[in-house]
Design goal:
The chain is an alpha+beta fold and 441 residues long. Helices cover 15% and strands 52% of the residues. The protein is built from six helices and 18 strands. It has an 18-stranded antiparallel barrel. The protein is globular and about 70 Å long. It starts with a helix and ends in a 5-residue tail after the last strand.
């Protein structure tokens, strides 16, 4: 481990020692493009997103969220967002910044937050090498809805996986080498992740420096990645992913992750907590297919080796119900406070059980309806039979404006993951205006 630490540090901090023998050159066309391109950019989007929820007052997660508030059957909220992307290039230095400001007003509460999603400096001392320092999303993995090998990224929202994510503060490098032959490209990405108070403190245990890396191959037109994460903040983990175009309109992908000595906390229906250590294996298999009628199908199977089983989730929901009954009878919320803490640690997260199917079908401009793209997303919990179904309609016929109407239906019996969600269904309307302030500079 010490040797690996030294090698990664030398690669990131002193790349010229590692690459002193590498030949490189600057092409004339590349120089001309750099001259024509503006050294800065500023853009992003403005968003207004009203939501309307029909709540399920008998669901465990509704009780956990609203036990100390007035009971309600519906919830309305307005969401406002401003996302800014800014970049500046000077010689071999690039600077990139992405910030997101959000304001939420609902019939329950109002909140606002400004978050820096990314903010890093990129150094390119020579064409094959890039060194980055700052807050960054690395986007590891080939999956569409889930990425079990995304060891240094925050998890996606499977119901809306295209949303931008907040990154981590890291030091990383990318070295890319191209070849002629079956092996076309090789790249190596070492990553250093400091975890201290106020620095990546939600990544894992603090007062540690973790190390990660990704080795990429383009071999026989197949993308292959090997990755790892080692350190004291989280259990060590190793992974592999791949993607390949079988035909011009059919692609397959997959991921596999192994977590060594994973520690997980459980609770039974009586409130007794215990921990279990085991080696967790997670994997994903998926495909994307585009028909000649511009219909896109995306299918994925996800095995979450760090998830909870059916009975384990039922125990948690029963504990919430007991805590709610106690609160109703005596005003004592100790059990519900304990349940809230466990929900934040894992039970209340997205897709926290073990086996899922994901299906998304979208149709571009059906029946000649220009700029319309209807789609539907289905996420099915194989373990307990519950699921979510989300139809949507996207319109892009106005320059720089995107309109999306989306519904979400939550279906499941009591004691199931989706059956215990706090709402039965929702309707969301998103208005997003994209702008490029560079054009006015």
């Amino acid at each position: 481990m010490k040797s690996l630490t030294i090698l990664l540090s030398i690669f990131v901090l002193f790349p010229h020692f590692v690459l002193a023998q590498e030949d490189y050159s600057f092409g004339l066309s590349q120089i001309e493009k750099e001259i024509e391109r503006k050294p800065y950019s500023l853009g992003g989007y403005l968003e207004f997103r009203p939501n309307f929820f029909w709540l399920d007052k008998d669901a465990a997660l509704y009780k956990l969220s609203f036990y100390d508030r007035s009971k309600r059957r519906t919830l309305y909220e307005n969401n406002f967002a401003l996302l800014l992307d800014a970049s500046y290039q000077k010689g071999i230095l690039d600077f990139f910044l992405r910030t997101n400001a959000e304001l939420k007003e609902s019939s329950v509460e109002s909140s606002g937050e400004i978050t820096m999603f990314e903010g890093y400096v990129s150094l390119k001392p020579m064409p094959p090498l890039t060194v980055d320092l700052g807050k960054k999303t690395l986007k590891w993995g080939k999956g569409y809805a889930w990425n079990p090998v995304a060891f240094v990224d925050r998890p996606k929202d499977p119901d809306d996986p295209g949303l931008p994510l907040e990154g981590l503060i890291v030091a990383s490098a990318d070295y890319i080498k191209s070849f002629s032959g079956p092996l076309q490209t090789v790249s190596f990405t070492p990553v250093i992740i400091p975890v201290y108070e106020n620095i990546n403190d939600d990544f894992g245990k603090i007062n540690s420096v973790d190390f990660a890396g990704k080795l990429y191959f383009l071999f026989h037109d197949t993308d292959i990645d090997f990755m790892f994460l080692r350190g004291n903040s989280k259990a060590s983990r190793f992974g592999i992913d791949f993607s390949r175009n079988i035909t011009s309109n059919w692609a397959i992908h997959g991921e596999f992750a192994f977590v060594d000595d994973f520690e997980q906390k459980f609770i039974d229906s009586n409130g007794m907590t215990f921990q279990r250590r085991y080696d967790a294996k997670s994997y994903l298999l998926g495909m994307r297919y585009l028909t000649r009628y511009d219909t896109t199908f995306i299918f994925e199977y996800y095995r979450n080796g760090t998830g909870y089983g059916t009975e384990e989730m039922k125990d948690f929901f029963e504990f919430v119900n007991k805590g709610y009954d106690l609160f109703q009878a005596s005003g004592d919320d100790a059990l519900l406070s304990k349940a809230s803490a466990l929900a934040e640690e894992g039970y209340g997260g997205r897709n926290r059980m073990t086996d899922y199917l994901y299906t998304r079908i979208s149709q571009k401009e059906p029946f000649g309806m220009l700029y319309f793209t209807p789609s539907v997303t289905w996420i099915f919990n194989i373990d307990d039979g519950s699921y979510s179904l989300s139809p949507e309609l996207l319109y892009t016929g106005i320059t720089n404006l995107q309109l999306r109407l989306k519904a979400g239906f939550i279906i499941g019996q009591r004691g199931t993951e989706y059956g215990e969600k706090q709402n039965d269904c929702r309707i969301e309307f998103r208005v997003r205006y994209y702008f490029d302030a560079t054009k006015f500079g």
